[in-house]
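Below is one such protein, fold included:
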Amino acid sequence: MDYGYQERIVSLLKENKITNNELAEAIGKGKATIGRYLTKGPTRTYPSIEDLALIADYFNVQAHWLCFGVGDKYTEANEITKAASTSAATVSYYSRTEVTKLLETGEAESKGTIPVPPEYKDCFGVLYPVGGTVSYKWDCVALVNRNQEWINDDIVLARLPGNPHPDFFTLVKVGTTIHVWYGDDTTKNAIHQVNDDEIEILGVVRWGTWEKRI
């Protein structure tokens, strides 16, 4: 799940002139719960996929758009799947611990393959850690482009000093110092500050896909 769902919910509230309290009553939650879903502060909590689906139903928009930013508000998932399947490419995806072997030898144990839009055919997939209430129901694969130059606020696959395995970080460079956040959560303080030669950037995350576990 990408965390843009917050902005999408806020835009729906404004567009429909609905208050947090009205939304809370409609989906059977407390007003404070909606506030915690939408805050970016330390009291933030994460809605379940089921709660986001209820919100999507209330606003009569597509859940895949609200949850993940896939497609648009009103295009049904089967239409997106049909459009993608006519021109999709297939890429393999790997665990983070297998990435080093993949990049050094070109061969590693794949966890599977996924269909992706053709513009991402040169990427490779890496299982992306998801947290909160979604982690036990959804797998996320991040597509990583090795040839893409990163810019501020990009999520990258990289190795920090002393860590043999790569992980996902958000980077912001100020002057000569790169500020590093774990994953995509920049609501807290940066976990590291490094120089260019202290971080090995393996690729930039360009797109993601989510699959519900059986």
Observations:
- The chain has two domains: 5-77, 89-212.
- The first strand starts at residue 89 and ends at 94.
- The CA atoms of residues 87 and 211 lie 20 Å apart.
- The chain is about 30% helix and 30% strand.
